[in-house]
Amino acid sequence: MNILVTQTKNMKEAQIIDDLDLDGIPENSIQCYWMNLCTDGMNQYQRIPILVAKGSSGYPVFGLTAAVHGNELNGIFVIQKLFREINVENLNGIIIGIPVVNVPSFHSKVRRFTNNVDLNHIMPGKEQGNTSQVYAHRFFNKIITKLDFLIDLHTASAGRVNSYYVRADMKHPVVRKLALLQNADIIVHNPPSDGTLRGAADEIDIPALTLEVGNPNRIQNAMIKSGIIGVHNALSYLEMIPEDEYEPNMHAVICKSSYWIYTDIGGLLSLEVELLDVVKEGDKIATIRDIFGNLLKEYFAPEKGIVIGKSVSPVNTSGGRILHLGIIKD
Questions:
Q1: Regarding beta strands 208-212 and 149-154, do their DSSP bridges make them parallel or antiparallel, or are they unpaired?
Q2: What is the pLDDT of residue 111?
Q3: Is a pLDDT exceeding 80 seen at residue 4?
Q4: CATH of the domain at 50
Q5: 316 pairs with which residues across the strands?
């Protein structure tokens, strides 16, 4: 049987590397790598996949990361599609794509790292730490420190759905512009130093944002298309590609903060609101019933806000998530 193998234009067969030497990459080419990161229980390397598109110069270096949580897939396909479409002959600078950051959890189809830690809560990791901290530290220092700009692609977690939204430090002028260019429905202001990959990059003066591209364990073509448009807009704004950027979404709802609302009892949860609904203080947002159908409790919005994300899992214990409420900036 003959097997047909296709390859992106100008893309070379993946090499195994210990470090990423951007200066040594030929101009006007796309390269694939497996980077050695940590070793497992059999002393075999855990390797991270890397795509690099290099144009006619080495600056700026624009990074895209996906699957920091192993079950968040849409960002992988945003990166793949970008590298299929990019014309390196017209590229100014370098694009680095990491389609899967959390390789062990990707294999297991789960959110958290092997020691049940959320990688996006411990960035930039620790050189002398536990297994997740060392993994995060090596990833951050081998790859993220080489970037000039970063977009970190995420989705909702299991049992939840998200609107198409951005987390960004809106007090930083470049980050603010990049956030608006994603044409998201909602932008949530988040300062650095919060343990996220975005926040850790911001801390070392790499303008970064988090783009939430849909829901977990799924391939959502509409969300992927929106993500691609946002990335193209960013590359155009940074003058890395000659394309015109789409008009930024000046009608995006800007939130000064956000938080989750939780249940305090268990039962069967029903939501009374949809994504992007604006609720005011006192609006009913959810009910909890027991297994016999008896109403146990109603939940109401504590203040005015917009529904960024919500639970879609009806079975809830005490402390279960109801919805993610964005507090709209005046």
A1: parallel
A2: 96
A3: no
A4: 3.40.630.10
A5: 267
Q: For residues 175 and 169, is the Cβ–Cβ distance under 8 A?
A: yes
Give the domain extent around 276: 258-328
- Would you say 111 and 132 are in contact if contact means Cβ atoms under 8 Å apart? no
Rg (CA), the chain: 21
Q: Six-digit token pair at 280?
A: 């005011």
Angle CA 204–150–163, to nearest 5: 120
Residues 67 and 141 in one domain: yes
Do the beta carbons of residue 241 and residue 247 sit within 8 Å? no
297 and 159 share a domain?
A: no
Does the pLDDT value for residue 187 go beyond 50?
A: yes
- What's residue 181's pLDDT? 94
- The span from the CA of 192 to the CA of 204, in Å, is 10
- Work out the mean pLDDT of the chain and round it to a whole number: 94
What is the average per-residue pLDDT within 26-40?
A: 96
pTM metric for this prediction = 0.93
- Answer positive or negative: Cα dihedral of 137, 142, 148, 152: negative
At a CB cut-off of 8 Å and minimum separation 6, what does 172 contact?
202, 207
Q: What is the DSSP string of 266-314?
A: -EEEEE---TT-EE-TT-EEEEEE-TTS-EEEEEE-SSSEEEEEEE---
Q: How far apart are alpha carbons 95 and 150 in whole angstroms?
A: 10
Q: Which phi and psi angles does 292 have, rounded to 5°?
A: -95, 0
Identify whether residues 32 and 141 lie together within a single domain: yes
User: Is residue 152 situated within a structural domain?
Assistant: yes
Whether 247 maps to a domain, the answer reads no
pLDDT over threshold 50, residue 3: no
Number of compact structural domains in the chain: 2
Instruction: Tell me which of 8-12, 79-83, 325-329 is least confident.
Output: 8-12
Rounded mean pLDDT of 3-18?
66
